[in-house]
């Protein structure tokens, strides 16, 4: 770092302290914000200081009358603000000591002037983020004893329900009262508040936000000064109340200007950011050459026309606040952008950055630190990680959490493999519980909720890391309370909490473990008052492990239970796990019994019915049997020593497939469709899925598409919108714009909560009218991707398909069904043609595949019954999707078989060689492109090769396409060589598939926790070793079938031009697997 010139934009507080020490008295610092304003107003009165880029747009056709404020303007107008505010507030003095005033305002000039005016009156400001709900605002005000809140017009409604004696008044118009000269505004003679302002936490872990003081020294006195003339300006997209002030003050200490995106003036989109930057550069002679942003902004700009070019024009592009996806950062750096990661915290200020020699060093993710253990240190933790600790010598700390005055951040880092003092952020040490299936949740709010539900509790600790499901230790507050009393007291609250939690975070009654009061030492806690989770779990290892081996709480004696009582007992288990009853003869999956509940019920049955038996129930026993009645019959036969009979074998499944196809292929009473519309509106299902999210990304960026309706399960439009946006971001694509209830129907992408299995699709009247009035092309990609389910569990999916076809017929829309090659993969035909198959045996024997076959029959019946006999259009089109793989960033689905197989290298240090396996996977973005080319004919069609007219039979035949990768390279062995050569950090052996299965089974059996690959062990044993549940079988690795692609290649340029997978994509995928799936 010593050889790299520092800037005010990249200089951390540690580097600033060193520079000040070296400069001595030649670089004095201003100790307060107002001192800084006064000094700059004196030294550089006409130098530009602040601007909001209020460019012209549709919402506001006017520009700001004063786009740029000088340092003299800041001083003059802040005095005016103080004078105006003094009409509402009593200036602080000995009898009225310094206090705090709330400020709820859009990031704007008025925001800055109000803050400075309050400071000149001796007040600290509590910066209230507009996203806060009234209870959170009330809590913060109570904590800081706030008696006054200043609010702008836009956010005044937020305070309608604020209780108590809080005085609320509007932000004044300071410019209306501005004096013409600086001298006419006397400097207020009051004590400067020690706290410049309070920011606050988001409240995600505790439920309520907490204020964090920012002292005058921390925000001004500790900053560096680079007084050289001509310092470039900063352009920031971060609102002032969300961290914009640190960049602002960093610029001002060096006499530089800062521009802000005009919040409230226009939505923050990629296009609008570019307009704002252009406006800023036009309005000031000082060029904006530093760009400050968060990951979401850079993702938007990376996808925006001209975005890369604007970022290339910046001297430095800073990112912070969250982790930027590596693929996005790499893209920017490879485009010649000087990308610098900056990490800071409200507790410690600006800590580290990746400022470096940008020409030679491309490691933008690695933060560089001074080699000074008096400032920062990295303390070794588990798995090669280290925790960042701000030492006593660090210049600014709001608080400490160690006796020596240090602050342990709980942020974990990994060192650069070769560069000293370079660290890459990894995770939080204290954050979440990760279950065996890789799903995560934050236990802290749940613990607090349970603890607050009764006075019988002293503490609560939720556990479950590495396990299939979670549980809770309940610590009694009194030795006089019994275990039963406590569980009875907390269980109703936990049941209610379960209904509002993620499914994988649910806690069942059987996993509540009561810890008696007598003889127990209090749990170890941090200075924050939070439980030290790892120490507690180690201390109560026996109790936790016993919970996973424990019995149910039913009053039945299972040793003496009769066959007649067996169903009652099993139903009781489901009730304990779910907190509600299930119907014995209805499909369990359709009743909301998820995979985690299945694991828990199976464990209860084994523990209570088969405690001494060598018989172990199959992993998928619950879904395999489908209903409680079938499950009970299975258990009765086991108890009698008989071979379990599967009531869903062979012919019964084929009969069910035909029956379901018939049931859902009746379209009585619907009018025939003569012509199908080809419009600019799309109705899309499955937008949160792997394929669906990539389809949506393409639709978003397609100028020929005017609107997209995303239909998905959610409690509200906002929840639907947030789910879709999160799904995009997780896959390295820009998320949706910020949700706005008032403008929900004005956006290009509209997300609507629905229930596809309902005849009316579960849409509200208003939502249904919008879809009916505008729908033109329906792309149905939503489906339950669960290979454990039997056919009947998919009936809701099949019903949803029929209901969407009804919508298509009523609106004359084209219906595109995303089927699967698995629906016909057992066909003896070679190649498998692009046509409907009427024999149910052509589907693979999985419920998933069978359900897709049934849905194809429904689509075919719709074409025959709902299209006018003379029409040349097709109402429904079927696209069979083959094996997909990662996108161009290497991101895949962590629950799919191939990524899980690759992840076992971290478990056993080896991977299987499968010599005859062909890696003919299709990149998901190519699949998405192909779906749209088929959905919108004539965009990508190859020239016609025949001139013959269609026969009547051909006109009514349903169009079927095969979207897959036809290439027979690379081989699996070649892929392993690629990733092995690019895997110096984690070398692995390549061994035979049989030896790999043996090693994996042995390694998984020795683990205390479950690896996500455990669920697929039996499948791999059957395929590679010819053995399932200890029973040897002769097996051959079946050759992959060949699919005809004639019509697909004619319709889709993406499939015509698809290439074999290359080394670069597979190496990216390998790295993503290692970063994402636990070892």
UniProtKB/TrEMBL annotation:
Q: Which GO terms describe its molecular function?
A: phosphopantetheine binding
Keywords from the UniProt entry = NADP, Phosphopantetheine, Phosphoprotein
Coiled-coil intervals: none
Q: Domain Carrier spans what residues?
A: 561-639
This chain's protein is named Nonribosomal peptide synthetase
């Amino acid at each position: 770092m010593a050889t790299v010139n520092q800037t005010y934009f990249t200089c951390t507080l540690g580097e600033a302290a060193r520079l000040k020490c070296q400069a001595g008295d030649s670089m004095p610092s201003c100790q307060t914000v107002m001192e800084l304003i006064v000094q700059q107003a004196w030294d550089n009165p006409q130098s530009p200081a602040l601007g909001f880029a209020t460019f012209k747009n549709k919402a506001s056709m006017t520009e700001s009358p004063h786009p740029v404020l000088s340092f003299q303007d800041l001083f003059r107008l802040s005095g005016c603000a103080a004078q105006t505010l003094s009409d509402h507030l009593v200036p602080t003095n000995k009898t009225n000591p310094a206090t705090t005033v709330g400020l709820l305002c859009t990031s704007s000039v008025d925001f800055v002037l109000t803050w400075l005016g309050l400071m000149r009156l001796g007040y600290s400001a509590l910066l209230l983020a507009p996203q806060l709900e009234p209870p959170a605002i009330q809590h913060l005000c109570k904590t800081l004893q706030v008696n006054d809140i200043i609010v702008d017009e836009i956010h005044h409604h937020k305070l309608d329900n604020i209780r108590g004696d809080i005085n609320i008044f509007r932000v004044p118009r300071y410019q209306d009262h501005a004096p013409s000269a600086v001298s006419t505004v006397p400097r207020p003679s009051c004590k400067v508040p020690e706290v410049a302002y309070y920011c606050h936490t988001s409240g995600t872990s505790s439920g309520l936000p907490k204020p964090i003081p920012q002292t005058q020294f921390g925000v001004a006195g500790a900053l560096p000064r680079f007084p050289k003339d001509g310092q470039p300006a900063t352009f920031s997209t971060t609102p002032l109340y969300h961290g914009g002030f640190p960049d602002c003050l960093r610029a001002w200490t060096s006499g530089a200007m800062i521009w802000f995106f005009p919040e409230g003036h226009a939505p923050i989109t990629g296009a609008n950011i570019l307009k704002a930057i252009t406006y800023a550069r036009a309005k000031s002679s000082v060029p904006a050459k530093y760009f400050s942003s968060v990951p979401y902004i850079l993702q938007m700009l990376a996808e925006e026309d001209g975005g890369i070019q604007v970022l290339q024009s910046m001297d430095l592009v800073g990112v912070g606040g969250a982790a930027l996806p590596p693929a996005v950062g790499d893209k920017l750096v490879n485009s010649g952008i000087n990308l610098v990661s900056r990490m800071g915290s409200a507790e410690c200020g600006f800590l580290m950055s990746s400022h470096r020699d940008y020409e030679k060093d491309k490691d933008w993710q690695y933060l560089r630190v001074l080699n000074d253990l008096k400032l920062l240190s990295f303390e070794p933790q588990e798995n090669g990680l280290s925790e960042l600790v701000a030492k006593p010598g660090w210049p600014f700390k709001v608080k400490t959490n160690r006796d020596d005055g240090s602050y342990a951040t709980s942020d974990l880092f990994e060192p650069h493999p070769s560069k000293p003092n370079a660290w890459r952020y990894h995770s939080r040490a204290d954050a979440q519980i990760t279950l065996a299936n890789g799903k995560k949740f934050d236990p802290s709010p749940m613990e607090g909720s349970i603890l607050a539900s009764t006075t019988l509790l002293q503490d609560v600790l939720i556990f479950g890391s590495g396990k299939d499901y979670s549980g809770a230790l309940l610590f009694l507050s009194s030795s006089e309370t019994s275990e039963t009393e406590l569980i009875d007291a907390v269980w109703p609250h936990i049941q209610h909490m379960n209904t509002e939690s993620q499914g994988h975070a649910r806690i069942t009654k059987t996993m509540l473990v009561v810890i008696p009061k007598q003889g127990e030492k209090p749990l170890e806690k941090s200075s924050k008052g939070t439980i030290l989770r790892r120490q507690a779990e180690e201390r109560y290892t026996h109790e936790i492990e016993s919970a996973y081996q424990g019995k149910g709480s039913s009053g039945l004696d299972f040793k003496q239970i009769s066959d007649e009582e067996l169903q009652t007992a099993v139903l009781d288990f489901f009730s304990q796990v779910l907190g509600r009853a299930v119907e014995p003869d209805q499909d369990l999956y359709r009743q909301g019994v998820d995979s985690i509940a299945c694991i828990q019920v199976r464990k209860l049955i084994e523990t209570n019915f088969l405690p001494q038996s060598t018989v172990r129930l199959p992993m998928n026993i619950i879904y395999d049997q489908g209903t409680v009645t079938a499950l009970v019959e299975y258990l009765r036969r086991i108890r009698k020593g008989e071979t379990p009979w599967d009531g869903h074998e062979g012919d019964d499944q084929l009969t069910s497939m035909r029956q379901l196809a018939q049931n859902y292929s009746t379209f009585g009473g619907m009018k025939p469709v003569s012509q199908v519309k080809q419009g600019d509106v799309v109705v899309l299902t499955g937008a949160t899925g792997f394929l669906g999210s990539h389809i949506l990304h393409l639709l978003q960026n397609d100028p020929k598409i005017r609107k997209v309706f995303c239909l998905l399960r959610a409690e509200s439009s906002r929840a639907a919108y947030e789910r879709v946006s999160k799904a995009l971001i997780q896959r390295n694509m820009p998320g949706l714009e910020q949700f706005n209830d008032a403008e929900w129907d004005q956006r290009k992408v509209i997300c609507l909560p629905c229930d596809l299995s309902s005849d009316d699709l579960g849409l509200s009247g208003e939502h249904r009218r919008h879809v009916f009035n505008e729908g033109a092309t329906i792309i149905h990609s939503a489906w339950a991707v669960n290979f454990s389910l039997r056919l009947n569990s998919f009936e809701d999916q099949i019903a949803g398909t029929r209901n969407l076809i009804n919508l298509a017929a009523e609106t004359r829309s084209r219906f595109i069904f995303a089927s699967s090659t698995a629906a016909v993969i057992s066909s003896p035909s070679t190649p498998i043609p692009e046509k409907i198959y009427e024999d149910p045996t052509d589907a693979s024997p999985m419920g998933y595949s069978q359900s897709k076959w049934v849905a194809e029959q429904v689509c075919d019946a719709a074409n025959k019954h709902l299209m006018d006999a003379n029409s040349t259009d097709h109402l429904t089109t079927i696209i069979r999707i083959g094996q997909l793989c990662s996108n161009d960033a290497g991101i895949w689905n962590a629950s799919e078989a191939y990524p899980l197989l690759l992840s076992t290298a971290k478990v056993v240090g080896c991977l299987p060689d499968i010599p005859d396996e062909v890696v003919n996977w299709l990149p998901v973005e190519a699949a998405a492109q192909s779906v749209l080319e088929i959905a919108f004919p004539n965009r990508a069609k190859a020239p016609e090769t025949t001139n013959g007219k269609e026969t009547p039979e051909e006109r009514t035949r349903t169009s079927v396409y095969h979207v897959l990768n036809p290439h027979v390279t690379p081989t699996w062995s070649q892929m392993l060589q690629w990733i092995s050569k690019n895997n110096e950090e984690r070398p692995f052996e390549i061994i035979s598939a049989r030896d790999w299965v043996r090693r994996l089974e042995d390694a998984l059996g020795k683990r205390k926790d479950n690896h996500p690959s455990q669920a697929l062990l039996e499948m791999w044993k059957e395929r590679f070793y010819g053995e399932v549940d200890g029973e040897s079988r002769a097996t051959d690795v079946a050759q992959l079938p060949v699919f005809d692609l004639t019509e697909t290649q004619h319709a889709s340029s993406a499939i015509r031009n698809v290439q074999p997978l290359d080394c670069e994509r597979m190496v990216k995928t390998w790295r993503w697997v290692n970063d994402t799936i636990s070892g």
